[in-house]
Amino acid sequence: MSAFLISLAVIFVAELGDKSQLMAMTFATRFRVLPVLAGITAATAIVHLASVAVGAALGAALPTGPITIAAGLAFLGFAAWTLRGDELDDTERAKARRATGSAILAVGAAFFLAELGDKTMLATVTLAADHGGLVALTGVWAGSTLGMVAADALAIGVGHLLGRNLPERIIKYGAAAGFAAFGALLLVEGLTA
């Protein structure tokens, strides 16, 4: 249960201000909310399942202390990445607007490609490497998937309520602070183990 809750919180925070949130808002202006969420959920579940598998393999091959230190450093890096910011470029925005056919397939394909190598995927790999055992890894997968879908659903809802006037600066600094806090905790744990 702790792997689920940690993954849910970390990935939710990681997704705040991410370009996939902007994609979710853009798709929501073209398609109904439920097909958009279904596409996001399917793509996220697949990408995060692969991320958990990679993380589990790394966790089994390496000792716990160095993995925890590497995870802490990775989360500090994610904090810096978050401060740098993510923007949806004109090409990505245009693709989201022009998407035709099944909304679920269009959104799912776009999210699958956008998440490959993204900080939420890398954070999921890091969390899986730090948690061993099938139950914990299942918790990481479920928590990371639900965390991302919840953050994107929030973006869609807030986008509809506030238009495009999201407080990006506050979201960016809050997410970076969350990553930095998780990174510092992991470093302390790794160095004292």
From TrEMBL:
Which topology term describes how it sits in the membrane? Multi-pass membrane protein
Could you tell me which InterPro entries the record lists for this protein? GDT1-like
Question: Which GO molecular function annotations are given, in alphabetical order?
Answer: metal ion transmembrane transporter activity
* Coiled coil region boundaries: none
The family database entries (Pfam families) matched by this protein are listed as:
GDT1 (PF01169)
What broad class describes the main subcellular location of this protein?
Answer: membrane
Record's keyword terms, sorted? Membrane, Transmembrane, Transmembrane helix
Cell compartments where the protein resides: Membrane
- Record flagged with keyword Membrane: yes
Q: Which residues cross the membrane?
A: 33-58, 65-84, 96-114, 134-158, 170-188
Q: Does the record bear Translocase in its keywords?
A: no
A cellular-component GO term for this protein? membrane
Residues in the signal sequence: none
Query: Which family does this protein fall into?
Result: Belongs to the GDT1 family.
Q: What is this protein called?
A: GDT1 family protein
